[in-house]
Amino acid sequence: MKRNLQTYGKISIEKARRAQRLLAEMVIEHDDFKNPPDIIGGVDVSYLGNRAVGVAVLLDFRTLELVEYATAVVDVKFPYVPTLLAFREFFPMAKAILSLKRNADIYMIDAQGRLHPYGLGAACHIGVVLDIPTIGVAKRLLCGTIGARSDDVAPVVLDDKIIGAAVWTGRSKKPIFVSVGHKVSLNTAIRLVKQTTRKGRKLPEPIRLAHSIATRYRSRIR
DNA sequence: GCGACAG
DNA sequence: ATCTTGTCGC
Predict the structure, then answer these.
(1) B1 C1' – A105 CA distance, angstroms?
(2) Positions in chain C where some atom is under 7 Å from a protein CB
């Protein structure tokens, strides 16, 4: 894992797009991590006014039990702009991940991965910059069209290309959206999401716990 | 120009 | 994301 980070400073939409185009070419879409993983991570961000609370959790892949978690409070410096989420959440997420005592073999990020108009959702962005395997897990669709559903999965297509998948979990009528973040294939990503989603739940444990802790941590800093 | 739009 | 009341179901 790369532990020397750089500051983006003030960045224009134009520069952000340029960065996305360059980083998008660096995304690795085949499995390149310990599979099956021993430890699987989850990352999420919550907000308290102008501060972001990043949370990274580590779970035992076999038992889905929490083994460690880290938090990071950061001042928000970038507005929420659809397709540019990474520029807002990179630091809180990265600082939380880098604060962990150990690393996960792969991390689920509460954001889109390749399922993004420029092929670089925040999950890919974090994965490429920190050089860690990541999976994008989102609750809503950002772009693309949901194709033919087969069992509990349907491809999400954009410009005749499969950029992610809609996955129906729990008894929710609405699916969650899974896509490649970095160093993982779409099929493996889908499988890992299913394997870490407890019976009846809509979200995989890594994401659910990270979200839960992020929300609870807010009352601790206000 | 219009509508859509992760967290 | 966050702000919010009640409500349905296990």
Answers:
(1) 47
(2) 1-2
Nearest one of A203, A1, A222 to A101, comparing CA atoms: A1
- Domains annotated on chain A, with CATH: 28-221 (3.30.2170.10)
The pLDDT, as a whole number, for residue A32 is 98
Task: Evaluate if the CB of A51 falls below 7 Å from strand C.
Answer: no
What pLDDT score does A45 carry?
97
CA of A108 to C1' of B6 (A): 14
Task: Give the CA A165 to C1' C6 distance in Å.
Answer: 34
> What are the pLDDT digits (tens) for A149-201?
999 999 999 999 999 999 999 988 999 999 999 999 999 999 999 999 999 99
Contact A116, A129 (CB under 8 A): no
Provide the pLDDT for residue A219: 78
CB A46 under 7 Å to nucleic chain C: yes
DSSP assignment of A146-195 equals E---BTTEEEEEETTEEEEEEE--TT-SS-EEEEEEESS-HHHHHHHHHH
Distance of CA A112 to the CA centre of its chain: 6
